[in-house]
Design a protein that fits this description.
Elements: H1 2-15, H2 18-28, E1 39-44, E2 53-54, H3 55-63, H4 68-75, E3 80-83, E4 88-92, E5 102-106, E6 113-117, E7 120-127, E8 130-131, E9 134-135, E10 137-143, E11 146-152, E12 157-164, E13 168-171, E14 176-182, E15 187-192, E16 195-200, E17 206-213, H5 214-225, H6 232-251, E18 255-257, E19 269-270, E20 273-274, H7 278-286, E21 290-293, E22 305-306, H8 316-319, E23 345-346, E24 350-351, H9 352-363, E25 375-382, E26 388-395, E27 400-404, H10 405-412, E28 419-424, E29 430-434, E30 441-443, E31 447-450, E32 458-462, E33 468-474, E34 477-484, E35 490-495, E36 498-504, E37 511-519, E38 526-533, E39 546-548, E40 550-554, E41 557-558, E42 565-569, E43 576-578, E44 582-585, E45 593-597, E46 603-609, E47 612-619, E48 625-630, E49 636-639, E50 646-654, E51 662-669, E52 680-682, E53 684-688, E54 691-692, E55 699-703, E56 708-710, E57 714-717, E58 725-729, E59 735-751, E60 757-762, E61 765-771, E62 778-786, E63 792-800, E64 813-815, E65 817-824
Parallel strand pairs: 2-22, 4-18
Antiparallel strand pairs: 1-23, 1-24, 1-28, 3-21, 4-17, 5-10, 5-14, 6-7, 6-13, 8-9, 10-11, 11-12, 13-16, 14-15, 16-17, 19-20, 25-26, 26-27, 29-40, 30-33, 31-32, 32-39, 33-38, 33-41, 34-37, 34-40, 35-36, 35-38, 42-53, 43-46, 44-45, 45-52, 46-51, 46-54, 47-50, 47-53, 48-49, 48-51, 55-65, 56-59, ...
Helix pairs in contact: 3-6, 4-6, 5-6, 5-7, 6-7, 9-10
Amino acid sequence: MKSGIATRIARRALIAATAFAVTLAASAATPALASEETTFTFSGGGWGHGIGMSQYGAKGYANKGWTYDRILKHFYQGTRIETKPTVTVRVNLDKNKSARVEWRIQAGTDTTLTVTQLSDRSVFVALRELVAGTPATYWITTSASDTRLHRDDNGRPGTIIQTFDGRCFVSSSSPIRIVGKSGPFDHVGVRWRGRLHFVPDTATTSDCVNYVNIEDYLKGVVPRESPSSWPAEALKAQAVAARSYAYDDAVNKRVLWCTIWSQVYNGHSRPGYNHEPATTTSAIAATRGKLVWYGTETKPVKTFFFSSSGGHTANIEDVWLSSTPKPYYKGVTDDDAAGNPYYRWTASPLTATSLSGKVRSRVGTSFSAPAPHVINNITLERAASGYTRYANISWTNGRTYRIKGDTLRSVLRLNSTKFSVSIKRPGPVVTPYSEKDPNLAWSGIWSPVEHVGAYGGAYRRTSLPGSTLVTRFNGTGISWIGVRGPSFGRARVKLDGTVVATVDLYSSKTLTRQVLFSRTGLSSGEHTMTITALNSRDSRSSRFGTSIDRINVTGGSLLDGSTPVQRYEESWNRVVEFGGWSSETTSVASGGSRISNARAGSRVIVDFVGTGIDWIGSTAPGFGSARVSINGSAPTTISLAAATTTHQRTLFATSSLSPNRTHRIVIEVVGPTSSSAGTVTVDRFDVTGGWVVAPNLPVKRFQETSAVKTGSWKVYRNTLASGGTHIVSGVKGASVTIPFEGTSITWRGARTRQYGKAEVLLDGKRVAVVDLYNPTTKLNQKLWSRSGLSAKRHTLTIRVLGTKRSAAAGTLVSVDAFDIRGQLAPRP
């Protein structure tokens, strides 16, 4: 029935279990099926029949400030809102519309249960019994089409209290409880407003029909059809639509269903649950008696409603083809996109065999070809609003059958009749490769993640931007399958060295087996796809995750992949030099330069991710030795002394390191010995499966006494100063210089009203002018800082300018301490 479809779709779209939604979304991204069969993929917009009011649209317009009556007049064109007297609604309380052999009931909170013969109170029973402080329970059964009232006997019908001729009414001044299952969800112990009418259906069974005031009925309907957290005007629109939908049935004493076949009605409450939220109850009260009316019609509009339309609702005759067109059932634009998971959807692909079986089993041989014939083509006749009126289905026996779009939607359980179909004909074989395949070349940090929805029960994930997967393959197409979710970011895809896509992996829900990138139609031959995790994400995402579950190769196979090796010259700003290394420009070195040192204890430090690292340098007669350690392990001594001079030679190499952590290599100069000058050279580093990362150096504090002073400086003692002292000068040109090796430095000093300005020079260049004035004295203050420096030798100079702001009483400058991420540089 039409009203059943309306509420069924609204119910499913708004209250469907999360597991179903996730399953649907995951299946929508299932990779291509076996290529030897034609496949059909249906995609569309919205959820529901599309006629009348879209619930997500009502929410969208309410968020834009529309009132409920404006929302209703938009979706039901040409209508008005009228107020009518209240009526009684009749609702069958069994979700399957089935009569029962027995019903178990209990009085409301006042403990009084009144049972009468229809409305004739000459045959009635008033029960006011308590059992352990709780209203007693009773049973209603049917025998020879008469209704009988029983006492409870240990959970079964006991002594007969009264036999009624045919049907009977049960009432209480507070909601009556059906002790067993009842209502649309088979909940136990639901309390129902109004009266319960037990009507014999057969000689031994009866229906339970709830007679309830329409306003009380809506209290159990509106929160089932629209989430109670939605805007008030959207809830009011839902209340009026639900009231209008049921009103004519109530006036004409027709029985409604408590399920999606009419409107979902779940009563007053059950133990531990209130079924009537305050927000929806308020919306009902605010619209009491309001109905949607059109022209001179003598009854309210049958206000069909549904979940969402995907941007435009439907004319009634475009969905239910035999319906009479009405002005108020005319399609209109719909603001239903925001927060709507069904605004656009794609169903799982179906093979020709699977699709044919579904159609054949539902429409019969009058509209389908017998097996083994299968469907080989579908064309659609669609209305201007996008809704499919008819589908022309062609079979391999040459016959074509024309069926209604709504019929095909029902057969395939599609979300709406606003759908299209794409057809994929048999093509090249698609071969899937697990993320564990040894031919895949990984770089960076990738960790295995177990997930039941992933292929093989697991996938690989990185949260470190820059991590890559390089895939070499021979074929005409490739697909990257992975996971989307709330903690995923973006990744870049290169194909044969050219950037072809930036993929956003964010989703509000975790979705597995997603086709994240696919490319077909490549020239036959060798290709390379590179996936790189980016330092970029959707604003809603919590991390920069990238996932890889499977690689599908079309028309070919994976080739042997070599793990990428990245070269880093010694001049790279993340290579740490401690101990005064000298740089030399020479054509024999990699990149045209190298560094050397003979000072004992001097070090080069490199932090990196990857599975291996090589130290490249020179050997020569008289060169010295170095101690090399990985991740703090016992050092290995490497001698650079050789009979002949060689360049760009691998002096140390390690491999098989963990791919899921950061590593550190330390090269420490042993120093001069009786047989050598102690020279050690560093030319470059080759990192396998990763890259050099920013060094993780500790911050150390050095007092002003570590610096070189020029000009006149006076020492001041103060317990609040770092180390208990700081130096001050007001002499123009007086300076403090500190050489350091590291990636950041902070100058600390005092501020007060007698202080003026100083210039800051970093590596000989002015980088700042600092004003030290402050109305009150503050010691050990952060005056200037610079980070992100190359991990080399630097020099910081602070020079007194002899100038000040007008409010200052002097031109003094204070130097207290230096916080260095690194260490002091050795002085020449």
